[in-house]
Structure formats: structure tokens, C-alpha cells
Amino acid sequence: MHPFLVAALLLTSTVALARDDAAVSVPDLIANPAKRIGESIVIRRIRCVDPGGAGLVCVAVRGRLTLRIEASLLGPFTKVDIAEKLIGLCKGEAKLDAAACTFDILITPKTTRQDDGTGGRGTVTVIYGNEIEMYAPRRM
User: Is 96 part of any domain?
Assistant: First the structure.
């Protein structure tokens, strides 16, 4: 890959993560996920795991509403210590309750759908992206 392109991608993802206007609240994303298709967005303090097999999953629950983010790859700018957490402490969907698996993420949604939750859990909004960049959660 051309060095200029790599630098531009790094700068873009870092700037987007730092910008408060790139951050989208979980309730806003659940209310209108299609609005964010193709837009790089930041979701702060969401629980993420490597479910085993392929891909990554992040989940946030607000009352009877659930946001589920699914991606195929971990982004190239995610630090090694976070990647190690995903294959260790944050391995398996049962770990979605672990506070240590809380991250800030950067994702560009590609598609979205809404499902009825199982067991009376309400609506689940599912967003798919190719990759997720993960960062240590920003202190609020």
C-alpha cells in the first residue's frame, strides 16, 4: 500500500476517534441505524468480544433495546494489548458482561437490520461492518 495512503488512513481513523462529533450514542444509533451507513462513527464504552470462529461482536443494552455490532476483522490500528485481550480475557460471547471487555470503537456500517429479541428481550439492532478499530475507553 502506498505510504501516503497508509498515513492518511491512520490520520483519518485517529481524528475520527478523537472528534466528539463522530461519536454516536447507542440510543441514537438504535433509533436510526440506516442514517449512519457508509459513515465512520465512534461508539464509546461498548462491550466487545471475539465470539470464536470468525469475526468480532460488540453489544450495548439500553433497557429493552440491544445494539449488536458485527465485523469480520479487527482494524490494523488496534493496539496489540487490545488484540491480546480479545483472544484471552474477552474470548466468547459469555464475556460480554465483563467490564474489562469495554472499548471505544470506530466502525463504518455497511448494512443494518432489526430483529425481535428472544426471551422477551425487546428489539435487537444489528449493524455490520468490514472491520472494527478498538481503543481503550475514553474517560468520561
Answer: yes
Q: pLDDT of 89-114, one tens digit each?
A: 999 999 999 999 999 999 999 999 98
Dist. CA 127–CA 69, nearest whole Å: 5
| DSSP codes, 7-59 | HHHHHHHHHHHH-GGGB--HHHHHH-GGGGTTS-EEEEEEEEEB-SSS-EEEE
DSSP codes, 47-99: EEEB-SSS-EEEEEEETTEEEEEEEEEE-TTS-HHHHHHHHTTTBSGGGGG-G
Residue 46 included in any domain: yes
pTM of the model: 0.83
Q: What residue numbers bound the domain in which 23 lies? A: 3-135
Tens digits of residue pLDDT in 9-32: 554 544 444 456 789 999 999 999
